[in-house]
C-alpha cells in the first residue's frame, strides 16, 4: 500500500501478482481460528503467519485491488481457494463485480492430497482479471493473441522451483503467458507481492519494465540476485501435443 500511494494514476500498464492465500486461518467447531505457523501450510513467508482474520484479510485485499485499478487498467490476481481465503475471494468477486472482466483457471496438472477427509484436492487456482475500464465487455482492448487462439483454462504444471525460504514460487510460464498475450514491449508491469522476483525476471527477459513491492528484505535480496543473473529465460518450454491441446 505504501508503494501504491506514491504511484500516479494510470502509471502501470498491467499488474501480475499472487498474494498470500491466508493458509493458516483454519476452522474449528464451525468458527475461524488462527493456527500456529506450520511449515507445510505457511508456504509464502517463513516469518509471516498468513492467518489474518477473514474480515481483515478481505478488507486488505479489497483495498489493494481498488488501488491497483487506480494505477493500472488491467490486473491479474492469482489466488487459490483455501479455507482462509474462500469467503473473502467469493465476497471480492461480488463486491468488485463491476470490475471483474474474466476469470482464468490455472490447471497445475497435479494436486497435493487434502489435509483432511471429505475435502477436494486443489489442482487448480484462479486468476481473477480486473479491469478499470470497459470491464463489462469480454474483449481485451490490448489483446496480443489472435481470435480463437487462447482459452480460459491454462495447463501449466506447477514445477518444484523453490528456495528454502519461499515454497510457493509461481511458474515463469504463467507470467510469460500473461505478458505475451496481454502486453507490449516496454509496458510497465507491477507486482505488489513480488516475493523472490519471478514477475520482474520474466518482464525483464521479455523487454518489459517492472516495479515490485515486497515486505521481506531477504526476499528483496533474492529477487535482485535473480533479476541480475536470470537475464535470458527461454520464452516457452516445449510441450507435449496433449499439453498444447489443453493449453490452446
Brief summary:
29% of the residues lie in helices and 20% in strands. With 248 residues, it is an alpha/beta fold. β8, α5 and β9 form a beta-alpha-beta unit.
Describe this structure in words.
This protein has 248 residues and is of the alpha/beta class. It contains seven helices and nine strands, in the order H-E-E-E-H-E-H-E-E-E-H-E-H-E-H-H. Strands 7-5-6-4-1-8-9 form a seven-stranded mixed β-sheet. A two-stranded antiparallel ribbon has the order 2-3. Strand 2 and strand 3 form a beta hairpin. Helix 2 packs across helix 3 and helix 5 runs parallel beside helix 6. The longest helix is centred in the first third of the chain and has 18 residues.
What structural keywords apply?
alpha/beta; seven-stranded mixed sheet; two-stranded antiparallel ribbon; 20% strand; globular; disordered C terminus
